Records
---
Amino acid sequence: MAMMICVMAQGASRSPKNVVLIMADDLGFGDLGCYNCDSAIHTPNIDRLAEQGVKFTSFHVNPVCVPSRVSLMSGQYTLDCEERPHAGKTGIYQNVTLLPQYLQKAGYVTGGFGKWHLGNGEGDHPVDRGFDEWFGFYGGWIRYKYEQSKETHIRHIKAEPHMQILYDGKEKSDEPWEHLTDLLTDKAMGFVAGNKDKPFFLFLSYNAPHGWLYHETHPEYSATDEWVEKVRAKYNLPDETWEQRNLIDYIAVTEHMDARIGDLLALLKKQNLDQDTLVVFMSDNGAITPEFYYTLAASGSNGGLRAGKAVPYEGGVRVPMVISCPSAIAANETVSGFTMGVDILPTLLDFAGIPVPENNGDHPLRGISLMPYLKQQQKPLPQREALFVNNGMSGICVMKDPWKLVTLKSRVGANKDLTTNEVPTDGWLLFNLDDDIGERKDLSRQYPEKTEELLDFWKDYNRGIGRKIRGGVGTND
Ligand SMILES: [Ca+2]
């Protein structure tokens, strides 16, 4: 009896198993301190999260926002559950259950803040897709600051009318803000404070750093003056060309985001939720890098990996990801085995004690729970085939660690003058990432059987999804 009371008392004192998923937008593999950042950026709060938990060094996603977020929210390849992975207008098939829907159904209070980019039609809104509370935007990006130039306003309203509007639930919000990173973090912290006694799921989806910064011409798309001044004072970086000024801006928006993540983590600690809350931090795709996007103000780093955002080379698809939960998983560990964005959904459900479904929509669940691999005595991860695509299917890679097959229909975002960044416009290239993580040596002729094996996976996949993929390369018809 005494033991029972003891157990019950212990059970009653345990905090709920909360889940916090923080996503950065276009943050590269080389942009964080804990990933041996090769620029001046310091990210002490995300680094501490990695020290308290597990850091993944071979975590892969689709190379651009929409398909990456489709896989995150569904546990499926983007082509399993979306007609054409582009623009975020069509949404995910309604017979596919999304991450917040699973958690909501299991009794979680669910809150999403920031970038959605998964459709804004009837039934596609975050509130229709499992979020009790939503504050954010539908499009790929929104200005960081409330005030904006007339020119920018007109340009973006023409391009995508919903791009520059924030929504509170389904209603347009007229609330002014100083900087989006602050606004979203404050909303997220309000959600945590208001739900500290219930199990909650928080999705904090920053627009930072997103890389397309224009401190000089469009200050509404840049860091705050305060953070720019901090960075200038701290690092004494050269500040003459627009590229140099843009790097300062990039560092400022990234460090600003890190500082606000620190505030959120401090709130969890203050509320005694830090030990039992699973926190995931990840990026949705690789960074926009200056050597590849020479016409854009691009200052991200993919840590020496080839190419960047929108391209299925490692610079586009290998991104930072850390998971922390002091009471449930190991501290200060690194998982170097192959993992991917579709694994997040089953991992979070598994942590929350929700049965991981075998299927979602019309297909078997593509992801696996990573929970068994987050202990100190790590099991080796299974070898799996994997598929990553960009918008409009103009770039595809098929992976079976350490092998990788790449094809590109066009020079997506490539600098045509840079021969070092030449990309194929037909055929498939084969790389062995164990020996050649920079993807420089095509082995497709040397290992035709391996090329065939990965191509067969792609062809079988095409047949298996039972419909013609439009606009793609390498399709089997
Ligand atoms: Ca992105």
---
Amino acid sequence: MMMMTSTTGIGSRRRSSSIRTPGKSSFCRTICTHLSSSSSSTIARGGRRSRRSNNSKSHHNHHHQFFHHSQPRQQHRHRKLRNDKIRASSSTSPDNDVDEDDDVKNVVIIGSGPAGYTAAIYTGRANLAPVCFEGFQSGGVAGGQLMSTTEVENYPGFPEGVTGPELMERMRQQALRWGAELYEEDVVSVDFSKRPFEIKSEDRTMRANAIILATGATAKRLRIPSEEKFWSKGISACAICDGASPAFAQKELAVVGGGDSACEEAIYLTKYASKVHLLVRGEEMRASKAMRDRVLDSSDVIVHYNTSVEDAAGNAQGFLESLKLVNTKTNESIPEPLKVAGMFYGIGHTPNTKFLDSQLGTDADGFIIVSDHDKTSNSVEGVFSAGDVHDKEWRQAITAAGSGCQAAISTERYLQMNKLLKEVKMMDTKDAKEEIEAAKKKEAEAPKKKTHEPAIDADNFDIDRQKHQGQYALRKLYHESPRPLVVMYTSPTCGPCKRLKPMLSTVLDEYEKSIHYVEIDIAKDPEIAESAGIMGTPCVQVFKDKARVAVINGVKMKSEYRKILSEQLIESSAA
Ligand SMILES: Cc1cc2nc3c(=O)[nH]c(=O)nc-3n(C[C@H](O)[C@H](O)[C@H](O)COP(=O)(O)OP(=O)(O)OC[C@H]3O[C@@H](n4cnc5c(N)ncnc54)[C@H](O)[C@@H]3O)c2cc1C
């Protein structure tokens, strides 16, 4: 996901911590011009027109060339099943010397990529009632690395392929089905010196007799001198999330790296870019032969071997414009800068082990060292690991899932052998199925009641509704709503967007009558995204009295959205 701070905006009347609201932009013009046309159609159809919309006429200086044609879109939301309902009884083996304290869990799983969810499925199936901290921010979004990929073609069981987010959603549902208790939170610390172990997130502390670490790995950056300056203003670590941004359309782009990830990113970007430069440090690409061939067969990808990036330079608006390259063989700078609007890192990953605070044996790169005999246990008894957090070599969804299974079985054996296993029986299959069906039905009905029905045009736009979709609604609300307006920019391939939507929706429910919301799919409404300066998704912008007062990039804690919305409402009532 690209974390960007736009410099375009509509007059900076207000500011908050995460706000950028510099001068007038094309966004205002885009919004205004459309409304000037669309509002007349509203009147012609007998629609309402507020004083605001009349006032807004003063902004209408341009005729726009794009009328909305937003399509109704199925809103996808999911909710946790009530696992406590699924469980019918809790029992301990008669000879078990079990900790009397009921709050001690059998196992806490940290991480929710293929490794974490598989461990949750297996331990759930074994009646261990697993708790899983899915992660949130510090090591990537819940669902893990596959949330930022499009097609997964090699995961068994999906002959037609499956998108990364869909695969992860299916694993999640399967974990829920077997009674896993999921928390979309980062674990901030663990204490392995205590028995039971203590696990802390920002919201809760838990105790468990066993832990499975499945925290995966995070994309590496080059750390060139001006990286921070252009981060999210052209530099990104996720082509799949950010590649569709209008700022990159038909521009030359660069991808750094020579492995599978870099090759996949380069191929993906050819959909949008005029040309993609793949910058490979070595003499050849490290990628698998299949990936290498795809790159070499593409006339839109130019491979630069023995090339590294020294630094970057930007344009007057502060966005990336060119890269200063170095020849890694001679160590000499390449005189001609490479003109690109975007640079995407595909240079590997750092294991997410920092929060362990060196309590476990790791190698120099931070990867957990596992024992040879079971490949999941390590220097602390009762702690197991799975997936990319210890795997430097295979790093695939299927190997991560396989190791999640190994860790789960090792955990069960460990608990059993140490007489710590507290069995929590599931209902019989029929009852469990009924519970799940009921929960699914409820879940399917929920969006109809709560979330954004698309407002397509003047015929079905209803300003009394809180949540909307598409550019028509945006324009109407921007001009006519007296409430603060939350705009969320998403893209179809953005996994983090799928995480943010239901979360933000829950926050917005708390402000049902006082805040308006509209979702813009940047692939459907690229002009809007461009005029709003969107270079990555998800991006949430908040407007008040036509001034942009906040920009929140990526997925943040609910409390951050609440804070900004509450601030706006307090200001409104004080005014
Ligand atoms: C762009 C891209 C494309 C890929 N395509 C494929 C493909 O087509 N096929 C394939 O087999 N593999 C593919 N892979 C590789 C695959 O995604 C990984 O090997 C796999 O996801 C590793 O799974 P994991 O469960 O070990 O870790 P991850 O998927 O990295 O998941 C780690 C989880 O831990 C969580 N976490 C981290 N820190 C904490 C914390 N402190 N507290 C709580 N939770 C935390 C994260 O939020 C995340 O949910 C791809 C990878 C990338 C980057």
